[in-house]
């Protein structure tokens, strides 16, 4: 299994025709570097396709996911250029669920 310690989501859309080298260049442009054991998530403009680039400490993995009927719940650029997710939020995101309500994002602090 690939060890992933940190998950980063880019808010700006990416062209899904991008291959490994282009996606890696985008990670460096948005996040400053591709750090070992980190996953970097990108979506297209319609947010129905997602690519995940993972640096496993030795090499780079690139995976793609496509939703046939719905869209991923993708934050807009108003949240900054990147958003940090936890593993539970990632699981909800890849299923097309509202990940912002899962884990620490679902805490209610004001009545």
Question: Any chance you could write out the topology, listing elements then pairs?
Answer:
Layout: E1 6-10, H1 20-31, E2 38-43, E3 49-55, E4 60-66, E5 82-85, H2 87-94
Pfam family, one: TnpB_IS66
Protein name: IS66 family insertion sequence element accessory protein TnpB
How would you sum up this structure in a few lines?
About 20% of the residues lie in helices and about 25% in strands.
Distance between the termini: 42 Å
Biggest sheet features:
5 strands, mixed
Strand order across the biggest sheet?
4-3-2-1-5
User: Average pLDDT value?
Assistant: 86
Helical stretch count?
2
Element order, helices and strands? Answer: EHEEEEH
Helix vs. strand class: alpha+beta
Helix content: 10-25%
Rg for CA atoms: 14 Å
Instruction: Count every beta strand, where a strand is a DSSP E run of 2 or more residues.
Output: 5
Shape: globular
Strand content: 25-35%
Oligomer: single chain
Poorly predicted ranges (pLDDT <50, ≥5 residues)? none
Walkthrough of the structure:
It contains two helices and five strands; from the N terminus they run βαββββα. The protein is an alpha+beta fold. The chain has a five-stranded mixed sheet. A hairpin with a 5-residue loop joins β2 and β3. The protein is globular. This is IS66 family insertion sequence element accessory protein TnpB.
Kindly list the characteristics that best describe this protein.
111 residues; alpha+beta; 2 helices; IS66 family insertion sequence element accessory protein TnpB; Transposase_IS66_Orf2
């Amino acid at each position: 299994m690939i060890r992933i310690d940190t998950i980063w989501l880019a808010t700006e859309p990416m062209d899904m025709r991008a291959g490994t080298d282009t996606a890696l260049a985008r990670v460096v442009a948005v996040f400053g570097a591709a750090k070992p054991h980190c996953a970097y998530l990108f979506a297209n403009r319609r947010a129905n396709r997602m690519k995940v680039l993972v640096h496993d400490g030795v090499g780079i993995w690139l995976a793609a996911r496509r939703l046939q009927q719905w869209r991923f719940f993708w934050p807009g650029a108003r949240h900054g250029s990147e958003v940090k997710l936890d593993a539970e939020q990632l699981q909800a995101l890849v299923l097309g669920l509202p990940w912002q309500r899962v884990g620490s994002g679902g805490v209610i602090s004001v009545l």
